[in-house]
Amino acid sequence: WIGPVLYFPFQSVLMNWLLLCSFTKSWKIMVDSHGTQRQIMFEVNSFTCPAYGKFCNDAQRHATLKLEVELRNWRSCFISYFNAQKAYIEALDGWLSKFILTDTIRYSRGISSIAPDRAGAPTLVVICHDWYTTMSKFPNKRVAFTMRNFLRSVRVLWLKQGEEQQQKRKVDSLSKELDKKVTAYKRAENRIIGTKLLEHKPEIDAKQRMEHLSEKKEMLNVLRKRIETEKAKHHACMRDTHDVTLNGFKIGLASIFESLAEFSKDSVKLYEDLLARAHDKDSEKATTDKRPCV
User: How far apart are CA 227 and CA 174, in angstroms?
Assistant: First the structure.
């Protein structure tokens, strides 16, 4: 199909206009879509899901890990998409350039050194060369960078959830220990009271038992204070988890959508410029074809 694509006007128009117009239309839609997503995330002040604000559990940590996997896949797909498009247009540019190379024009490291617009090349060749040149300098790294930053926020969230769970287990363990000691204290207290009623022990012995009971009560108070301290730490962990969740998602996703919106705008400009270039090239060619022979 070399001949039809390079030299038949209809095929050239099909390549230059239909394909580029489709890309332009698609990326304009993406500009609006990502802009809306960005605005929504900036306006988020809280989450209304049932699990938000409650104690973290294994299911939530598992969901966070699944989110991290999906985000890595999203980032990988975006990078692969851009690299595939760049490789495709590079190969197409090199392939088309072969048909207008002279003996003195050669490839340098796989990239055509020809200036197609100054070599009288067909419109399609000029557009593909411009497309590849622009793609080589295209600002695509910011999207991957913002996605990586959000991945870090999700990893921090997973760690915070682990800290919260660990602190919750510590509080639960101390609470169980307190319950056991309170039960033991009450049994000891009841034995002492019962002994006083049934036996006539020396006053010194009774005093010692009361002092021992008092020490146990003091230990219970110390344990209660420790539990309150650990509960305060647990609530602090919960606040940290909530803050990381809200701020991480709000700032992280908003940054991603903002970078995607900018990427989409740059893509629209790329294809609009290529369309304008194709129009100028075709107009120039039409003028040349109509010029009378002298």
Answer: 6
Mean pLDDT, all residues of the chain = 79
Q: Is 5:11 a contact under the CB 8 Å cutoff? A: yes
Cβ atoms of residues 234 and 168 within 8 Å = yes
What tokens were used for 56? 């973290």
Alpha carbon distance 260, 251 (integer Å): 14
CA trace torsion 149, 150, 152, 158 (10° rounding): 170
pLDDT in tens, 100-114: 654 334 444 444 444
How do residues 21-50 score in pLDDT, each as one tens digit? 888 999 999 999 999 999 998 888 766 665
